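Per reviewer request, we include the raw input and output of the structure prediction for the construct analysed in the revised manuscript.
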Amino acid sequence: MTQLILAFAEFALSFGLSALVIILTYRGFLRLMPHMNGEEEIRKGNAAVAIMLGSLMIGSALILQQAIYPVIGILMVSLTSEGLGAKDYLLMAGYALGHLVFGFLISVACVQIALKFFKKLTGSMDEDGEIRKGNVPIAIVLASVVLVLSMFMKEGVSAMTKTLIPEPKLGSLQILP
């Protein structure tokens, strides 16, 4: 029964987190494009803007996905431990929230690094202007940079979330003979 509860909790957490990532990434990155109205550009059929926005969402999701695993571990500890009080559950909820917030902040930072890296890579080209004009090849290269960087950064993010946000210590483990 505990495994079923854990599986359902992981499913619900994954679904909720994916919806949150999509909403926050979509809205957040549209706001980071003050020089153009991203939604209007997509409505007009600007494939370059859609490719860029899609890659930013996928890149953020790849990185943030790594923050889910420690949260599932915390959830498993809390559901399988006996004798925990309300204070222990609040502590575990705090650790879980800390992992998720930290993971989200790191994912946004990594995507920003990818965008800045792309601007350095292309030199004097006006990437924003090219994407606004609908230059699909530029958008594809930008999307590739974002996705490659996200794929490599996610392992580092996983290690950082496990290291920087400590998991609670709940006593000792005893193995039966």
